[in-house]
Amino acid sequence: MRQQLDTDQVSRHIAATPHALYEIVADVTRTPELSPDIVRCEWVGDSTGPAVGARFKATNKFGRGPRVSNRPVVITADPDREFAFSRRAPFSGTLVWRYQFIPEANGTRVIESYTVTEPVHWFGWFMLTVMKGAKDRRREMRASMATTLDRLDAIAATPPNRGRRADDERS
């Protein structure tokens, strides 16, 4: 059964500054702390941090399938306002992931969203549904975004230099 993915978003008020939240999200090496679907992220090539055109390698794992890597490119790096990247993978289409940071009283409204700019190929749907056991990928992605914002809130509430995984601190 082919599922329809187009766009979705989740938002949450977090009691932290846009700057603090941008710094966490734009450091893609911290993405595994946030997203339940990401196992590892690292800057590649000459890229060492968030800048338009910077590339990183992301390793994803969801469902019962194997780990899958892709190489997103940063398309927006507007400190304290927005961080976005485009992710393309064979048979998986192209998705733009975006984080927006909107100042509010006592914190920031964080909006995480995705937009499909190139649909998933039929073989990609086969891999998702049969090989990886994804029943409703749209619902799973929405739940993952909600978890990501929950974890961002928890990390932002942690004192500086805390909240990173122990293995990150040893490297």
Strand and helix layout:
Blueprint: E1 7-14, H1 18-26, H2 31-34, E2 38-43, E3 56-60, E4 68-70, E5 73-78, E6 82-89, E7 93-104, E8 107-118, H3 122-131, H4 137-156, H5 166-170
| SSE string, helices as H and strands as E | EHHEEEEEEEHHH
Assembly type of the shown chains?
single chain
> Largest sheet, if any?
5 strands, antiparallel
Can you tell me the CATH superfamily?
START domain
Helicity, as a percent range: 25-40%
CATH C-level category = Alpha Beta
Count the domains: 1
Write structural notes for this entry.
The chain is α+β, with helices and mostly antiparallel strands. The protein has one domain (7-157): Alpha-D-Glucose-1,6-Bisphosphate, Chain A, domain 4 (2-Layer Sandwich). It is 28% helix and 35% strand. It is built from five helices and eight strands. The strands form two sheets. It has a five-stranded antiparallel β-sheet with strand order 1-8-7-6-5, with helices on one face. It is globular and about 40 Å long. The relative contact order is 0.23. The model is unreliable at 161-171 (pLDDT under 50).
